[in-house]
Input
Amino acid sequence: MTEIPSPAPIAEYRAVDRERFDRAIRPAGQPAILRGLAEGWPAVRAARESDDRVVAYAKQFSHQTPFPAIVGEPDIGGRFFYTDDLTALNFTRGRSPLDPFLDRLLRDRDAARPFAMAMQSVPVPDLLPGFAEENSVPFLDKPVVPRLWIGNAIRVATHYDLMENVGVVVAGRRRFTLFPPDQLPNLYMGPFELTPAGTPVSMVDPAAPDLVRYPRFAEALRHAQSALLEPGDAIYIPFHWWHAVDSLAPVNLFVNYWWNPAQAGSGDPYDALLAGLFGLASLPADQRAAWRIMFDWLVFRQSGDPGAHLPPAARGVLGDLDDGKLARIGATLRESLSRKAGQ
Output
């Protein structure tokens, strides 16, 4: 029987300010726990008093507009995932105003088998106008819009984000288990066409991994990191790190901040990935190998500047990509895809 390794603890920091975050934590390229980062938030102080108190605090900012919500039957055990045949998701989508949603969380606190409930990634200014002014992370830029995640004891499958992320536990407790991007082959990625929340997820349940069906996951666990966060604690998740999230209390509130430092006006790498599947994945092995050399040299620039031997005026797309060049590349791609679609 294969031994199931335990994840290593995520590095922890206290008294984090902008200088420490920008000069030490982010450049390290590793996850980080920012203990007590939001301990002064009024929402966190309310949560530490009781579930009822934090719900009452949130209701000060709420209104009657319905927002997207998801609900799963008690049989799923709080794990939002797929049906057994992978043809559908095991939860349903709907809409609800916030107040009755919060009231249901409070009513279900003592239920042995509650429905799994969540509002996910709702912009805080839309859901709770005024909340962000009283509860904010001072070292993040104001254009970064905070998003709110509310639910009961639910489990989110291992997935990755296309941005950097700082998340703050407001109420409840959250366990994060993270895997570096290079563990992709050991995580058994699920379908692209049907996903719980946008990006593909790992098919392996980290809480009960089936190492007979997914044997390489044991290697992923050897590189995993994990931590348990309490109200007021925060986590930094670097770009494209895979993470599973377990909300462990009957009432959980979480605020996160996503941002992407990539050059404005550049294309979507996810589109490029799909284009690669479209144009490269079915080629013969020798052709794929040749194209890999081309991509490593021109796109990923593993051996330096591919246009350094040319005079600046002749470098074109091999030189610095300013707004004009990006616009021309985008127009060329759109024209090419349009021709392909018409064939």
Observations:
- DSSP finds ten helices and 15 strands in the chain.
- The first helix runs from residue 18 to 28.
- The radius of gyration is 22 Å.
- The chain has a mean pLDDT of 92.
